[in-house]
Amino acid sequence: MKKTLIVGNWKMHLNTQQASLLVRRLGERVPQHRDIETVLAPSMLTLQPISLEVDRRKFRLAAQNANAQDLGSLTGEVSFAMLSGLVHYGIIGHSERRKYFAETNKDVRAKVAAAVRNEITPIICVGETRVERTNHETKQVVREQVVTALRDLTGPEAAEVVIAYEPVWAIGAGRPASAAAITEVVAYIRLIIEGQFGKNVADAVRILYGGSVEPDFVANILSIDGVDGFLVGGASLNYQQFADIVTKAHQLAAAKEQHA
Ligand code: PGA
Fold it and tell me: Is the pTM of this model over 0.85?
């Protein structure tokens, strides 16, 4: 059985001291679970100090972004090559990067290739805007995002990636997308990957849901067929809420295993 994957994206929050405090609090409240993989994505600045403090049996680290080049005259940038060994995962193509930093599907594709080449597992964010949903373009948009992002990968490489379905309109909205909407798009993402790489790869890929995930919604969303975990924004900055999300996911996984 796949472990449930829960990723906390801290975005541009928390200085070094605050990040360190949050990690300590989480360490006290989040036990090591056999069936859960918990990942923290602090800012680029705090990744290094956090890596020295964090209990690696409980938490893995993710970068929120990095440059697709391994090195070069690119003032202000940090590469996946530099992050190699420091992080397990790299979040790529988050909607905020697409919106505020004009990242295209082509950029995402190059970053996915860079992450894989540097032994970092990509967490590729896809999802439609409200306008795209209203215009019935969700499938078309998500298809283009997924197909382009995975284009440079081999089957075995693609099998390792994580896709986060994050409908843009549900991010920071206080309410996640409906179970019906999530079910439909997650199934569609697997279908796309099956078309590209075959069924074994499609089944192996982990697909997360992201957008206003809070403890109260965990059971509902994780019960959806094909949802393997969460990408959490706002609630990951609150140690109680994030620990609750992990606990609820663990309870659900344990109950599922009992019934299996
Ligand atoms: P949210 O953010 O949980 O605050 O909605 C999710 C995300 O942007 O990844």
Answer: yes
